[in-house]
Amino acid sequence: MDPQPVRSEYKKVWSALSTSEEQAKLHVIGVTEEAALQSTGEETLGFLQESVGIRRDDVVLEIGCGIGRVGRLVAPLCRKWIGCDVASNMLALAAERLKDLPGIELKEISGYDLSGVADESVDVVYCTVVFMHLEPWDRHNYILEAFRVLRPNGRIYVDNINLCSDGGWKVFETHRALLPATRPPHMTQNSTPQEIETYLRRAGFSDVQVRTDDDWVRASGVKREENPFRPPH
Ligand SMILES: C[S@@+](CC[C@H](N)C(=O)[O-])C[C@H]1O[C@@H](n2cnc3c(N)ncnc32)[C@H](O)[C@@H]1O
Questions:
Q1: What Cα–Cα distance (Å) separates residue 14 from each residue in 108, 111, 194?
Q2: What are 62-82's pLDDT values in tens digits?
């Protein structure tokens, strides 16, 4: 038997987790019923609308789109929706799920960048239920890439489970109880609000807002044309 891939071998890890539709759904959000996929997607759409807003003329890009759980709800509200994912199996399921919708583009990406997406070509980038599966460096890589592909005044939304919340701490403790060698490579690793805020600010985003009203960190920012506080890379 092949040894278990390490966390950063995202393509291998997530291809293996999406070999059937049922497995893919379970690893996307832990449910397989259509009604639950719809209602959790609506909840995410609500957070997007409250933070970055989705407008009729927007080109919207999702990093780690999975089977298109959220994309199915976002795409009808904008000009174009670009779903990016590291796993071709996920993208094949998304293609099937979204086949009746116009303005859809699906793109297989490396696992750490958005190469192939032109500079300043997108209005909104969002990434939901993905950061917990990434190395911290790759979370920031994607935020830097989002800054590159966003047009001036483009908006970003990202989230993760909040380590500083009671629920987030419970997740952390559950995983701590496992022997190190038995922890699967896609295991959830939470973020602190400060971590996410730092990535957004260091990438050059302005108007950074961080919500922590439940067990999640939900953060947004805007790529202003001039940001005098943008630190050098
Ligand atoms: C838990 S699912 C969430 C899917 C989708 N965002 C949603 O909320 O329905 C995580 C997704 O991220 C993708 N993924 C994992 N690591 C990735 C990486 N390094 N780059 C891009 N996508 C990645 C997986 O293939 C999977 O589709």
A1: 12, 10, 28
A2: 999 999 999 999 999 999 999
Binding site membership of 158 for ligand 1 (Cβ less than 6 Å) = no
Q: Maximum CA pair distance of the chain? A: 54
| Residue 10 CB less than 6 A away from ligand 1 | yes
pLDDT band at 86 (very low <50, low <70, confident <90, very high): very high
Cα separation, 146 vs 155, in Å, equals 9
Centre of ligand 1 to C-alpha 227, Å, is 30
Tell the residue nearest (CA) to atom 27 of ligand 1: 66
Q: Which residue has the tokens 């957004």?
A: 200
- Cβ of 64 closer than 6 Å to ligand 1, yes or no, is yes
* Whether residue 111 has its Cβ less than 6 Å from ligand 1: yes
Mutate to test the pocket of ligand 1, among 130, 131, 138 (most ligand atoms within 8 A of CB): 130
Helix or strand holding residue 181 (H, E): none
The residues, ordered by sequence, that sit 6+ positions from 51 with a Cβ below 8 Å of its Cβ are 155, 157, 209, 211, 218, 220
* For the CA of 24, the nearest atom of ligand 1: 27
163-197 burial by CB neighbour count: b if 16+ within 10 A, else e? Answer: bebeebeebeeeeeeeeeeeeebbebbbbbbebbb
**Residue 232 pLDDT level (bands cut at 50, 70, 90):** low
Closest by Cα among 46, 30, 56 to 218: 46
> Cα–Cα distance between 50 and 122 in angstroms, integer?
19
